[in-house]
Amino acid sequence: MIKYIKKSKLSVSKSDDNEDIKITVESIISDIRQNGDKAVRKNSIKFDKWDPKNFKLTDDEIISAQSLLTKSQIKDIKFAQSQIKNFAEHQLNTINELEVETLPGVFLGHKNIPVESVGCYVPGGRYPMVASAHMSIITAKVAGVKRVIACAPPYNNGPHPAIVTAMKLAGADEIYVIGGVQAIAAMGIGTETIKATNMIVGPGNAYVAEAKRQLFGEIGIDLIAGPTETLIIADESSDGEICATDLLGQAEHGPTSPSILLTTSINVAEETEKEIKRLLTILPTADVASKSWKDYGEIILCDTEEEMLEEANRISSEHVQVMTKDPSYFLNNLSNFGALFLGHETNVAYGDKIIGTNHTLPTKNASRYTGGLWVGKFIKTCTYQRIENKKTSAEIGEICSRLSMLEGFAGHSEQANIRVRRFSGKNVPYPKK
């Protein structure tokens, strides 16, 4: 039986379902749909106080932004990007095309076709999310997307040097300094100066998530992301300091980010709670992390590993970090998670920033039905069929005709019948009213 050592005071934020947000986003999208660049500029001034001559950065402006970074910073960005590219390339190699002969002369197959154009959004509100540029742009490029454009909001009244550098090094074809809903709408709908894309990816706040939700169907999206979530699964082989550090390391994302510890050890549970109190007195981001932990943090004591597994599947967290004697038990049995971090030696920050797996992941229980962003999200698997045997076509046609009439589709039936008549010589009557 589970026991709550600390329970969340509030349910997971539903702010992205707020009616006011929906109405605001709908209004901005409608404005940009009707007024294009003029509306983008108006909303940029209103929300970001940003009114540049051009939203698209020139080559000189990109070079100027890069010059503001040190050689060491650029080297670190390149290293992270090399890891992400390497893993994406290995993923791509697992996606195979197919053609199989299922009946004499009947060939069925599928082709893998990259999406033609993608818009990548990189948030820059509380934190400039440099890593999001790697995760979206590089992965799209590895998939074979021909045109990848990128948007990020202004930072201190200009483009953020590290974000721009990461976008350029990742391979973005066009870089724009536009934030929020106006960026999503500009990339998804298009304006006089920004050609619309077929798909938009990347995290963002509740307004960005709602904009993606409203445009979905007209364009493709990766997923609708909510506040960052982290779940730590620990037994007596772990300790309070490392659990507390890893919980608060994700709680600092925002004041509504759930951080949860599942443990079979009362000592680990109590030590973690003590360590969190201590760390919140020295952590530079404690103003955010403390609110998140107070309102959304949980420590749950379980009797067995099996009970922790059951709870973890119920919680279905975005990030699941396993620090137990046998992490492979959870790798082999856990069903609902965005990404797994196995062993004391790894942590969520590695996945967020550098190790190579993608950090755009499902939140708010979405891991029950989807994984996160990966190279396959940018690839359409499209089927085809080819018949090279007239006898087989006629044989299939007779069955197809009967099944079509079973459903009342006379025209479908005749599509089959005409091939039966031509390829077998049978006198199949034309369907009558």
What brief labels describe this structure?
433 residues; alpha/beta; Rossmann fold; six-stranded mixed sheet; 16 helices
Question: What's the topology here?
Answer:
Elements (H helix, E strand, L loop, with lengths): L2 E4 L12 H17 L1 H12 L10 H8 L4 H22 L5 E6 L2 E9 L2 E5 L8 H14 L3 E6 L8 H10 L3 E4 L2 H10 L9 E3 L4 H10 L4 E2 L8 E5 L5 H12 L7 E5 L2 H14 L6 H11 L1 E4 L3 H11 L3 E5 L4 H6 L5 E4 L5 H6 L25 E9 L2 H17 L3 H15 L9
Parallel strand pairs: 4-5, 4-7, 5-6, 7-8, 9-10, 9-12, 10-11, 12-13
Antiparallel strand pairs: 1-11, 2-3, 3-14
Question: How would you characterize the overall build of this protein?
Answer:
Helix 3 crosses helix 6 and helix 9 (240-251) crosses helix 10 (266-279). Strand 12, helix 13 (328-333) and strand 13 (339-342) form a beta-alpha-beta unit. The chain has helices at 19-35, 37-48, 59-66, 71-92, 130-143, 161-170, 180-189, 206-215, 240-251, 266-279, 286-296, 305-315, 328-333, 348-353, 390-406, 410-424; strands at residues 3-6, 98-103, 106-114, 117-121, 147-152, 174-177, 199-201, 220-221, 230-234, 259-263, 298-301, 319-323, 339-342, 379-387. The longest helix is centred in the first third of the chain and has 22 residues, at 71-92. The model has no long low-confidence stretch (mean pLDDT 96). The chain folds into two domains: 16-222 and 376-380, Rossmann fold (3-Layer(aba) Sandwich); 227-346, Rossmann fold. It is of the alpha/beta class and 433 residues long.
